[in-house]
Design brief:
Distance between the termini: 33 Å
Number of domains: 2
Largest sheet: 8 strands, mixed
Strand order of the largest sheet: 1-2-6-3-7-19-8-18
CATH architecture of the largest domain: 3-Layer(aba) Sandwich
Helix content: 25-40%
Structural class: alpha+beta
Bound molecules: nickel (II) ion
CATH topology of the largest domain: Aminopeptidase
CATH class of the largest domain: Alpha Beta
Number of strands: 19
Length: 441
């Protein structure tokens, strides 16, 4: 216990004070104030013209044009439609990456706003609407704003800023590659090599003006699975001559429930094992030959992720075996994301910066989220910090505010300016602290 106290005291002492001077902070605030109407206009434009993953052609052109107008070096066509801008500061220092995702979702918009999307596409063989129902339009507009703020301070910038506009966070069309993983494969963290990465997600159930964060695992890893239980078909009236994959599947589903409750230290982190689809048979008096199941495994810590996957394999295999059935377990089946893990040291170091941007009372720790985010792929390579930014109107009820990915999803645009300030200040503060630590060496 004592050791813990001493260690945590040391941790508090070791956190450097934010050194960015007030004049610089005021400069950022003034610039963000001035840019706010533009940020909102960009957001509305992108919102009205949403594009699905790997198709963000219009948004990419808008972004590239803006960055070029600021004199920022621009590369386009990365991982299909990604855009990367490199802003070299007047002074030497670290490379800070800032990331925004650009894609929309196959959702039919139902909000009353004048700039609501009317876009229709063919998706999985059906006509559907396209909507920025996760707020990635706000992420793009905020990062375009940050680029303008920081480009205006280029002379005094102690390092390089890499603006990463990433396609397809929500997933890719079947059979395609994309998103953060592909951006990294195509070298987005190299030339110049990125030292640290910051990102944020707007949140429709957090009040404007507020920021939430969490050190360590903040969003879950995802590994989806397909389980094929193979038995022997028979007449339903003569089950003794069958190897019944339906009963074996029922046992598998039940046994899977014990993994989280019995194998995971739930006092540390949550975990999820869900079966979401069971398909087998077509008639009451026929025992079918096989059953197929689909599911998802989620964890907040890499070690837990490995353990859960291993236990799922064991439990499924042994349960099927005990029924005399054979089984195929495919993990991952279609998607596999790491844990979105906020480097604890980096989070501690940057907390004062966030608090100064939003006001101390407006910054709080969030519960871990069992949803996933492909920002996690960058964090596997470099230390990163991912925040949640309030987008719910003041006085709103977080229990009834429309959630992400729904037709009524709504963002109060008065929250965007804080996003511009927070990312700008994180960049400037990180560069400042880096200079001080280099001097000490
Ligand atoms: Ni999202």
């Amino acid at each position: 216990m004592k050791n813990i106290i001493i260690v945590s005291l040391l941790a508090i002492i070791a956190v450097p004070a934010i050194s960015q001077n007030i004049a610089v902070r005021n400069q950022v605030n003034a610039a963000a104030d001035k840019i706010e109407p533009k940020v909102i206009a960009w957001r509305r434009d992108i919102h009205e013209h949403p594009e699905l993953g790997n198709n963000e052609v219009r948004a990419a052109a808008l972004i590239a044009k803006h960055l070029e107008s600021l004199g920022i070096e621009v590369k386009t066509g990365i991982a299909h439609t990604g855009v990367v801008g490199v802003l070299k500061g007047g002074k030497p220092g670290p490379v800070v990456a800032l990331r925004a995702d650009m894609d929309a979702l196959p959702v039919i918009e139902r909000t009353p706003v004048a700039f609501a999307s009317k876009v229709k596409v063919q998706y999985n063989g059906k006509e559907t609407g396209v909507m920025h129902a996760c707020g990635h339009d706000t992420h793009v507009a905020i990062l375009m704003g940050v680029a303008e703020v920081l480009a205006g301070m280029r002379k005094d910038l102690k390092g390089t800023v890499k603006f990463i506009f990433q396609p397809a966070e929500e997933g890719v069309p079947h059979g395609e590659e994309g998103g953060a993983e592909m951006m990294i494969k195509e070298g987005v963290l190299q030339n110049p090599a990125v030292d640290v990465i910051f990102g944020l997600h707007i949140n429709s159930q957090t009040e404007v003006g507020k920021i939430k964060y969490r050190p360590g695992g903040v969003m879950a890893s995802v590994d989806d699975m397909k389980i094929i239980v193979k038995g022997r078909s028979a007449h339903g009236a003569y089950p003794w001559s069958a190897i019944d994959p339906i009963v074996a599947s029922a046992q598998i589903i039940n046994n899977l429930q014990a993994i989280v409750s019995r194998n995971l230290n739930i006092t540390e982190n949550p975990g999820i094992v869900t079966i979401g689809a069971v398909n087998g048979g077509n008639r009451g008096n026929i025992i079918p030959e096989q059953v197929e199941m689909l599911g998802t495994i989620r964890a907040l810590k890499t070690e837990d992720r490995k353990m859960l996957i291993q236990r799922v394999r064991e439990v499924v295999t042994k349960t099927a075996e005990s029924a005399g059935a054979s089984v195929e377990v495919i993990i991952p089946y279609e998607s596999s994301f790491p844990v979105t893990f906020n480097d604890p040291a980096l989070t501690a170091k940057m907390l004062a910066s966030i608090e100064q941007s939003a006001g101390k009372d407006n910054v709080s720790i969030t519960l871990p989220q069992t949803g996933a985010e492909d920002f996690s792929f960058y964090q596997e390579k470099v230390p990163g910090l991912f925040l949640f930014l309030g987008g719910m109107p003041k006085g709103g009820n977080k229990l009834t505010a429309p959630s992400h990915h729904t037709p009524d999803f709504f963002i109060d645009e008065s929250g965007l300016k804080l996003g511009v300030e927070t990312l700008s200040n994180l960049t400037l503060d990180y560069m400042d602290m880096d200079q001080k630590s280099v001097k000490k060496k």
